[in-house]
Specification:
- The protein is mainly beta.
- The protein contains no helices and ten strands.
- The strands form two sheets. Strands 1, 2, 5, 8 and 10 form a five-stranded antiparallel β-sheet that branches. Strands 3, 4, 6, 7 and 9 form a five-stranded antiparallel β-sheet that branches.
- The protein starts with 6 loop residues before the first strand and ends in a 6-residue tail after the last strand.
- The N terminus is likely disordered.
Length: about 140
């Protein structure tokens, strides 16, 4: 739908390779997403879709950083966007989102996430990350 207002587009960024257990392989490990072209988009949101089994009073925490580059450049240094934020404090499924101002970044961006279960041994989690781009008056090519 384009009525002359801002358009939006959802890009899959990345997901963890498999569900992980607290304190084991996959827990508290940084995973880099795909390169996302933000051309013509000035704002948006990052969404973390998750599923957890948590011990009472324990949490799933997230840290996310962003790198940017223009065409033909290497990505610059990562800039933290979110640092050890509790995104889940109970077992279940959910979505944690936060807004982002793309206008301050170069054309290409890449997000890296690190999710950490604050317990050891029994808690589990699985997640995927999507980027919702908005703030464009140009209809994106399909």
């Amino acid at each position: 739908m384009n009525d002359g207002s801002s358009e939006y587009k959802i890009d899959a960024s990345h997901k963890c390779p498999e569900p992980f257990i607290a304190g084991a392989t996959g827990d508290n490990v940084a995973i880099a997403g795909v390169t996302i072209d933000r051309l013509n988009y000035n704002s948006g949101a990052v969404a973390i879709f998750y599923s957890t089994t948590l011990t009472p009073q324990k949490a799933l925490q997230a840290s996310i950083s962003i790198k940017d580059a223009d065409a033909g450049e290497d990505f610059g240094s990562a800039v933290p966007l979110l640092t050890t934020e509790s995104i889940a404090t109970a077992s279940g499924v959910g979505v944690y989102t936060f807004p982002i101002d793309f206008s301050q970044y170069k054309r290409y961006v890449q997000f890296t996430t690190k999710l950490d279960l604050t317990h050891t041994g029994t808690d589990t989690a699985d997640y995927a990350v999507a980027v919702i781009k908005s703030g464009s008056n140009t209809i994106p090519a399909s």
